[in-house]
Specification:
The protein is of the alpha+beta class. The chain is built from nine helices and eight strands. It has helices at 8-21, 55-66, 82-93, 110-117, 120-126, 158-163, 174-189, 196-200, 204-224, and strands spanning 42-48, 70-75, 97-103, 129-133, 141-145, 148-152, 166-172, 191-194. Strands 1-7-6-5-2-3-4-8 form an eight-stranded mixed β-sheet, with helices on both faces. The radius of gyration is 19 Å and the shape is globular. The mean pLDDT is 85.
Amino acid sequence: MVRIEGPVVADWQRAFARTWRRCGAELDLPPPPPCAPHAGAAGRLSLSEARQRSVLANGVLRRLDSCVQRAWIMSAYFVPARRFRAALGRAARRGVDVRLLAPGARTDHPWVRYASRRFYAHMLRSGVTIYEYQPAMLHGKVILCDDWVSLGSSNLDRWSLRWNLEANQEIADTRCADEVAALFERDFAASRVISRRHWRERAWLDRLREKIAGAIDRYIDRWRRPRRQ
């Protein structure tokens, strides 16, 4: 959870009112309380709106391509497009500490997990460290690139970045990044690390499920892709 105060609240209000207006009457919201301009951290609202250019996705890609120390991803439903997989691989190959925290067996969408796992082999070869959270269902969505944080409703998947209305709060602040890193470290400690050896030796039934889930994902992707006029 994150609590937001200050001028950026007005951006969230405008985004909410614009969405409300698509379905009904104008929404009259009170202005946010004033805040000293020097207080707090730098940040912005980042949106991804269906069938429009995703500011959220492009912002994450820029950060992945420019980070130098760490790129840690927590995603409850990790079915990324090729450009995100490529960006993670590029970062890992240039020496960035790239880690993915994904759900373990306790998940509300097991077939999405299988669709996600079919990307593990390539990411492991690229140098990405993969953790699967064990104690309970993982539903967090957080991206940490050096001292920049993005957290909110968006997973790094096609549903979030191409078809859904999603909103993240971006924060560029060392103190906030350190707090988020500490949260990641606690969750890493409660997770299972997926090694390349372990991955090669996984059960044949899991491999079959990954192939089936991958075929379904590709079919849905083609079906939902906007057609050109």
